[in-house]
UniProtKB/TrEMBL annotation:
This is Uncharacterized protein. It comes from the Eukaryota. Transmembrane segments: none annotated. GO terms for molecular function: oxidoreductase activity. Keywords: NADP, Oxidoreductase. It comes from Urochloa decumbens. Pfam families: adh_short. The keyword Oxidoreductase applies. Belongs to the short-chain dehydrogenases/reductases (SDR) family. SUPFAM superfamilies: NAD(P)-binding Rossmann-fold domains.
Amino acid sequence: MHENSRETYSTAKEGVQTNYYGTKHVTEALLPLLQSSSDGRIVNVSSFFGLLRYLRSEELKQELDDADDLTEERLDELLDTFLKDFDSGKPALDARGWPGELASYKVAKAALNAYSRITARRHPGLRINCAHPGYVKTDMTRNSGLLTPEEGATHVVKVALLPAGGPTGVFFAMGKEASHYRSDCYPGIEIVVHRTHLEGTISNPPNTRIAVVTGGNKGIGLEVCRQLAGAGITVVLTARDETRGTAAVEKLRDEAGLSDVIFHQLEITDASSIARLVEFLKERFGKLDILVNNAAIGGVEHVDDPSFGPKPVGEQFNGMDWQQRIRWMYKNSRETYSTAKEGLWTNYYGTKHVTEALLPLLQSSSDGRIVNVSSGFGLLRYFRSEELKQELNDADNLTEERLDELLDTFLKDFEAGALDARGWPGELASYKVAKAAVNAYSRIMAKRHPGLRINCTHPGYVKTDMTRNSGLLTPEEGATHVVKVALLPAGGPTGAFFAMGKEASFV
């Protein structure tokens, strides 16, 4: 909406005249009739955009929040100043600390909120309140909202029909009394702009659990998002591609009725993308309760198997047991130095960098949890060197620095064609080494941060793009094993490996 809206002086002036002065003039004209009622009420339909947090000047915020001393005359002066600053250009708006995008709408709604409080003070016999109906699909939002008009209207009507003697001069967000100042004081809908993309998000009370799922737009990740949201957790679904991530959120909302799912772009190998996610979470929630590191790649090039012919996806594997399916995977995958390096960088270092960036937010939770989606291929049995097995299994003495050295050695050996001599895994070597490193890293982190629950989980052999749909389990079934670890009882195990929901050995 921000990206696809253009605000001119003419539209800004018209917006202030309609949204503030139009409402004010109607209210003043009807006041005598309202006072003739034994229980007169005024409900001004406002917006979260009218919250004072959108003003960039502390002086403006304080003045508009001073319900005891602010006057209508001063409001007129402020609005006149706003329009003059708008006419002078963006530098003047920035210098005075007015809102940025949709400035006129935000200023008019903030003025309406202030006027409602002034009028409530002046007419104590009336109930005069403001109502934010939620982010609604209307012509004004170009149908980008999350709620239907019917749903939005219920929040307005609830305020209109409050019991006699109820509150006055108050701001209601989606039917609940809230602050005029901040948006994180109530459960409601808010707009978040990251990069140039607009997403609806959920505003949550402090006791709501917040989860981040990486690689959440499809497969196991999407189903983890579905199941966590179904458990009453607000989920931030992340994905590299904004279009696919947004579509995934819409799918969860439309098909499953899950409104507590938010999309935020994340490329786990991009430091700036990670930083944007951290800043969003910090500003929006101030904490993180659950991190599910699910994003991963196969680290191989796929080779087409001509023997399958035009059979539908999944039917190619009818009659094969799991061992035959895995052998087929080996046979029809090609691993190059380039794919091996990319696999290691994504599956280990990407997971590590996201985890480290989000640690402070996880530590702000009363029960922070990290679930690293690993694999049966990360078990140490796939290493052919006993020395490597012992070193990677030595949770008490292994360090991150030593892990880095081992991974660097692996890549050098891969490039030199020396994997066999050093005893690294054979087929899918990069994937196996990266997942073994994730397992080891999880144990190191669990020891270093005993206040967090940090575990690995093998979801099973799942039908996904990565397995080329050769798996035995559906994404839904695989996700249940991940979610089970994410939602273990408080005080449960940490530094453990779970295989299909049950605690198991790293070896």
